Amino acid sequence: MSILETRKTAIADFSFIYDLHRQTMYSYVEQTWGWKEEVQLQGMQEDFDNSLFEIVCLNEQDIGVISVIDRGNEMFLNYLAILPIYQKQGLGTQLVRQVLSQAAERGVPVKLNVMRVNPAKELYDRLGFKVVDSDRDRYFMEWQNTLGS
């Protein structure tokens, strides 16, 4: 049986996270804004707060990253990336469902944004997220627990 877990990140995990970002987001960033290595690296360095990221592990192997920011009255799915060789196996679905379960227990919505060119939007649609706004590059989406209302 495969065991999917998360662990807190350490400063030493930055290179894994950035390499994962490059592998999973390069084509979407390139299509949307154009990939500029120095901009991406600097942006990731500025955004990297190891207290906000968790490494996703499958059978103790690092396979991805998730970042969920608790804003009190909502949860924000800030970042989710799975190594390409582990994609399309339901792991992202499992991780997002865990976030939705936590939000439902607390009675708060989950929000996120996704680039228009990123096929992950289909995952979020399937899990009940609704587009609440958009701009030229992104969809802003929200999930509300309608069962408890």
The SSE order reads EHHEEEHEHEE
Largest sheet: 7 strands, mixed
Provide the β-strand percentage band.
25-35%
CATH architecture: 3-Layer(aba) Sandwich
Query: What is the CATH class designation?
Result: Alpha Beta
How much helix, percentage-wise, in residues?
25-40%
**Large-scale geometry:** globular
Total number of distinct structural domains: 1
In the CATH hierarchy, what is the superfamily?
Answer: Gcn5-related N-acetyltransferase (GNAT)
Distance between the first and last residues' Cα? 36 Å
Q: Kindly state the mean pLDDT as a whole number?
A: 91
> What oligomeric state best describes the polypeptide chains here?
single chain
The rounded Rg comes to: 15 Å
CATH topology type: Aminopeptidase
Give the strand line-up of the largest sheet: 1-2-3-4-5-7-6
Would you report the number of β strands? 7
Strand-pairing-aware structural class: alpha+beta
- How many helices in DSSP terms? 4
Uncertain runs are none
Task: Note down, in words, how this protein is organized.
- By secondary structure, the protein is an alpha+beta fold.
- The protein has one domain: 3-Layer(aba) Sandwich (Aminopeptidase), CATH 3.40.630.30.
- A hairpin with a 2-residue loop joins strand 2 and strand 3.
- It is globular.
Question: Top keywords for this entry?
Answer:
single chain, 149 residues, alpha+beta, Aminopeptidase, seven-stranded mixed β-sheet, 4 helices, 30% strand
